[in-house]
Fold:
Amino acid sequence: MQIKLPEERFADYKSKSQRVRVATEGWAQRNLYCANCDSPRLTRLPANTRAVDFNCPECGTPFQLKAQSHPFARRILDAAYSEMIRAIRENRTPNLLALHYQDSGWSVVDLILIPSFAFPISAIEKRKPLGPGARRAGWVGCNILLDAIPQDARIAVIANGTPLAPHRVRQQYERIRPLAKLKVEQRGWTLDVLNAIRSLRRTEFALGEVYRLEERLARLHPANKHVRDKIRQQLQVLRDIGIVEFLGRGEYKLKQ
Structure:
């Protein structure tokens, strides 16, 4: 995998945004592979294909590419809020490829993959409507909150300019793939509990420690009045899909 962005079409475009688009999409077409199967490449879809930029020619898995010149912090700018919420509820979000490039030298610095089944509604932040003077006055966009997505589902493909081996990326994708089998209504809770566990910042933890995160989870799910019951249920789900191991006597361990 090369990290240098192609510049050969820059002469065809005057604006930086257009150059960034053709460079990053051209790079992706030449370098990216499917994490869901063994395909060594992705197929670029026609311009203006809604919400999807690439798909896998072998398994059909869709991917969306978002690129920016500054490091990813807490938020990734996304499209319409209502559309994103609907896509999550209808289980049709694409895999997200978030690319951080360096415009001095035009190279890829970081690339993370967020699987399509790893977006809880809690990770979607509603933005303020566009003002009356805007061309799309009243339109409401959204941000994707990276820290609301479990660390397990933020899969590094390139880190600090160094590509990771494809088999490592696929192993991480495979590890959390069982989340895709959960019903959408349940999956949001599972992801939120997993993210809460990750906030403890250790591999082994006790049920009582997760209970102390009850208020945080209650804010994310205000309609649920039995949060502790839900926490225990989701720990069982995480155990059943192989992400958490039950050690006994209220003790658990995150599998690596």
Q: What stands out?
A: The chain has two domains: 10-175, 185-254. DSSP finds seven helices and 13 strands in the chain. The helical segments are 16-31, 81-89, 166-176, 184-198, 207-211, 214-220, 227-240. The two ends are 26 Å apart (CA to CA).
